[in-house]
Design the sequence.
C-alpha cells in the first residue's frame, strides 16, 4: 500500500520526467491541476475544474485516476472492489463522441505504453467504450427486418447478421435502416435471444469489473443513475470515481434524461404500427380499431388546445414555445392516458400472427412509455413544460437539482467536473446552483480555474466596434450597419473569417446582403445541424464562414484559415419557459440577471472567443460588434474580465496592422 505522498511524488515525476521523454512538454498549470485532482480524489471531494485551452486537462485527470485506481488509494475510505475481488473502474463521461474516441484510441493507449515502459504499472491500462442501446445491433430486430427487405440492403444486412460486428457506427447503413435494427428500450429478458445475442454478450463482457476505465457519454451515465435510483438493473458496473468532462453540457443532458416528452407524431406512429398488425385468425379486432380511432382524435385535439395557448411573439429563432395546460386540456390528457393504457391491455390479450410478435411487443412498449409520459404531464405543476415545434410537448422536473443531489452528488466517491469554460470571470456560483451543487456540504465542494497558457497578449487582438447601433433584429438600419462592419473586417483580414450569430434570421439577412455585394472571398453559410459548411471553409484558402449554434463551442479550426472571429452580438440566452421559471427562484429580475443571465452569457462568450486561438502559434483578431461592450457600456468591464488578456482597439487600421505583423506574405497572397 502506497502513502498519498508517495503517489503524489510519483505523479509529479511522471509529468516532469517521463512524459517529456515521449515528446509531451512539461506544463506547469497541467501539473498543478493534476495535483489538485489527485488531492480531490483522495478527499472524496466534488471538484469543479476549469481548464483553459492548452492546459492538457485530459491527461491532467487520466493520470491521477490511473494512480488512484492502480495504487488502491482510497481502499481505506470506501469500498473500491467488486464482489469478485476485482477493482471497481473509474467512469469518464463526456458530451462529444470525438472526445470519447480520443480518450479510448489515443490518450489511454499512449499513457499506458509510457507507464508500462517505465515500469510504473505492470499491466497495460484497459478501457471500455460504452454507448446507448441505439448504437448497437439487435439480432431479433435485424432478423425481422431482413424478412421484409430485399436487394442490396438485404445482402448487407445478411452479412451483418452472420458477422461479429455489434457497433452500428462501423457500418455504412443509412440512419433509417439503423433505426429499424438497433437495440431499443424494449430490450428485456422476455426476448428469446436475451443472453445469447451479440448485444447482451457484449454488454456482459464490458460490464465486468476488470477495466480501469468505462468511457461513455453524459446521457448513458445519467441513464445509469436513473436506473439505480428506480431500482432497475444498472447499465454500468459499480465504480469508485467519476470524471465528467465537458461538464458545461451536462445540465442539458440531465434535463433531457430526467425530462419527459410526448409527441403527436410519435403517438400517431404507434397507432399506425398497431393498425398494420396481422392478428391471429378469428380474433375480433373491432374494439382495437375503435380505441385507436379514439386515441387519434384525442391526440389531435390535445395539440390543437396546446397550440392555441402559444403566444404569437413572431420569434423565428425560438426553440421552446410557452403553452398552458388548463383544466380542459388536463381532462383531455387524463382521458387520452386512460385510452392508451386500455389499448395496451387489449393488445396484450390479442394473439397476433407469428411474424407480428416483435412489432406487437415494440408497440406495447411504446404504448406503456406514452402512458407514463401522459401521466407525468397530468402532474404538470411539478414540471416546467413547453412546446417544441407544434407537435411535441416537453417538460423537466422543477426539482432537477435535488434529483441530481440525491442520485449523484450524495455518492461517497470522488467526482471530478471539468471543462474549458465553467466560470464567469472566476466565479462558479451560477453553475453550482444550476447543477444542484448548492445542496452539497461546503467542505466537500472544491473549485479551481486554470487560465490558458497561450500568449493572448501577443497573439490576439480584441476589436470592439463603436459604430454598430444597439442590437435590434427588426431594424433594417441595424442589419445594414452589421453588414458594413463585417465587410470591413473581412477585407482587413483578407477573408480567413468566421462570423458568429445568435440568430439564424440575422445570419441569413447579413449573409444575403454580403453575398449581393460580391466579395472576392468564398462565402459559406452554416445551417442548423450542418457540418459540411465547416469542412468546406477549412478547405478554402481564404473563405468566410457564417455560423451559429454549434459553432459557438466544440468546433476546432486551428491555423491561419481562421484568423478573424466576428461575434455579432453578445450571446444572451433567448427567454423561454425554463428561464422564465428560473427567474421566479430569485428575489427580483436584477438579481436573476446578475446571478444567471450575465454569467451564462459570459461563459458562452468565452466559448465563442475560444474558437480563434487553438494552438500556441495561432494568431488573430476577435471582433465584438455589440454596442453593449463599447466604451460607454454597462457590460464592458465584466466582458473584458471574463476574456483572456489581450490588446483592445476600435480602429480597423490597428486590426490591419496587427495582421500584417503576425501573418506571412503567403497569407495575403491567397
Sequence:
Amino acid at each position: 500500500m502506497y502513502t498519498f505522498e508517495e503517489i503524489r511524488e510519483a505523479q509529479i515525476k511522471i509529468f516532469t520526467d517521463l512524459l517529456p521523454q515521449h515528446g509531451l512538454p512539461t506544463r506547469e498549470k497541467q501539473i498543478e491541476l493534476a495535483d489538485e485532482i489527485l488531492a480531490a480524489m483522495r478527499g472524496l471531494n466534488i471538484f469543479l475544474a476549469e481548464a483553459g485551452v492548452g492546459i492538457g486537462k485530459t491527461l491532467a485527470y487520466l493520470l491521477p485516476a490511473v494512480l488512484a485506481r492502480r495504487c488502491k488509494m482510497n481502499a481505506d475510505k470506501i469500498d473500491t472492489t467488486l464482489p469478485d475481488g476485482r477493482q471497481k473502474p473509474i467512469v469518464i463521461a463526456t458530451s462529444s463522441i470525438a472526445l470519447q474516441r480520443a480518450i479510448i484510441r489515443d490518450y489511454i493507449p499512449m499513457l499506458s505504453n509510457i507507464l508500462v515502459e517505465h515500469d510504473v504499472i505492470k499491466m497495460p491500462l484497459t478501457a471500455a467504450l460504452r454507448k446507448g442501446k441505439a448504437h448497437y445491433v439487435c439480432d431479433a430486430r435485424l432478423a425481422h427486418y431482413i424478412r421484409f427487405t430485399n436487394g442490396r440492403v438485404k445482402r448487407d444486412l445478411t452479412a451483418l447478421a452472420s458477422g461479429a460486428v455489434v457497433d452500428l457506427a462501423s457500418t455504412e447503413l443509412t440512419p433509417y435502416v439503423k433505426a429499424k435494427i438497433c437495440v431499443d428500450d424494449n430490450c428485456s429478458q422476455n426476448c428469446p435471444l436475451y443472453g445469447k445475442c451479440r448485444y447482451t454478450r457484449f454488454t456482459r463482457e464490458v460490464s465486468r469489473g476488470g477495466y480501469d476505465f468505462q468511457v461513455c457519454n453524459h446521457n448513458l451515465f445519467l441513464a445509469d443513475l436513473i436506473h439505480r435510483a428506480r431500482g432497475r438493473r444498472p447499465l454500468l458496473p459499480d465504480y469508485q470515481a467519476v470524471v465528467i468532462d465537458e461538464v458545461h453540457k451536462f445540465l442539458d443532458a440531465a434535463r433531457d434524461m430526467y425530462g419527459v416528452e410526448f409527441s403527436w407524431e410519435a403517438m400517431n406512429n404507434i397507432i399506425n404500427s398497431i393498425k398494420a398488425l396481422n392478428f391471429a385468425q378469428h380474433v375480433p379486432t373491432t374494439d382495437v380499431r375503435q380505441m385507436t380511432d379514439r386515441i387519434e382524435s384525442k391526440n389531435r385535439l390535445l395539440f390543437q388546445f396546446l397550440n392555441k395557448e402559444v403566444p404569437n411573439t413572431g420569434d423565428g429563432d425560438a426553440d421552446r414555445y410557452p403553452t398552458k395546460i388548463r383544466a380542459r386540456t388536463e381532462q383531455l390528457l387524463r382521458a387520452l392516458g386512460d385510452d392508451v393504457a386500455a389499448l395496451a391491455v387489449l393488445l396484450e390479450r390479442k394473439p397476433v400472427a407469428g411474424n407480428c410478435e416483435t412489432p406487437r411487443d415494440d408497440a406495447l412498449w411504446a404504448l406503456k412509455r406514452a402512458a407514463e409520459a401522459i401521466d407525468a404531464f397530468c402532474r404538470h405543476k411539478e414540471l416546467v413544460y413547453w412546446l417544441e415545434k407544434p407537435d411535441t410537448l416537453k417538460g423537466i422536473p422543477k426539482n432537477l437539482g435535488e434529483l441530481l443531489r440525491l442520485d449523484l452528488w450524495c455518492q461517497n466517491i470522488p467526482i471530478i467536473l471539468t471543462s474549458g469554460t465553467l466560470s464567469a470571470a472566476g466565479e462558479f456560483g451560477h453553475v453550482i446552483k444550476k447543477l444542484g451543487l448548492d445542496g452539497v456540504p461546503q467542505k466537500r465542494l472544491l473549485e479551481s480555474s486554470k487560465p490558458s497558457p497561450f500568449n493572448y497578449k501577443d497573439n490576439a487582438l480584441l476589436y470592439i466596434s463603436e459604430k454598430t447601433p444597439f442590437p435590434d433584429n427588426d431594424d433594417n438600419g441595424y442589419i445594414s450597419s452589421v453588414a458594413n462592419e463585417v465587410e470591413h473586417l473581412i477585407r482587413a483580414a483578407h477573408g480567413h473569417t468566421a462570423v458568429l450569430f445568435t440568430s439564424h434570421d440575422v445570419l441569413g439577412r447579413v449573409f444575403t446582403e454580403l453575398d449581393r455585394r460580391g466579395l472576392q472571398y468564398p462565402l459559406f453559410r452554416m445551417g442548423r445541424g450542418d457540418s459540411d459548411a465547416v469542412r468546406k471553409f477549412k478547405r478554402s484558402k481564404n473563405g468566410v464562414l457564417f455560423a451559429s449554434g454549434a459553432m459557438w463551442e466544440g468546433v476546432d479550426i486551428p491555423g491561419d484559415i481562421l484568423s478573424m472571429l466576428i461575434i455579432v452580438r453578445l450571446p444572451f440566452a433567448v427567454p423561454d419557459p425554463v428561464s422564465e421559471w428560473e427567474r421566479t427562484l430569485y428575489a427580483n429580475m436584477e438579481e436573476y440577471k446578475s446571478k444567471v443571465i450575465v454569467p451564462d452569457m459570459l461563459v458562452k462568450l468565452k466559448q465563442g472567443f475560444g474558437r480563434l486561438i487553438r494552438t500556441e502559434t495561432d494568431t488573430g483578431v476577435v471582433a465584438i460588434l455589440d454596442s453593449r461592450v463599447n466604451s460607454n457600456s454597462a457590460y464592458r468591464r465584466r466582458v473584458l474580465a471574463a476574456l483572456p488578456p489581450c490588446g483592445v482597439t476600435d480602429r480597423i487600421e490597428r486590426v490591419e496592422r496587427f495582421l500584417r505583423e503576425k501573418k506571412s506574405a503567403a497569407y495575403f497572397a491567397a
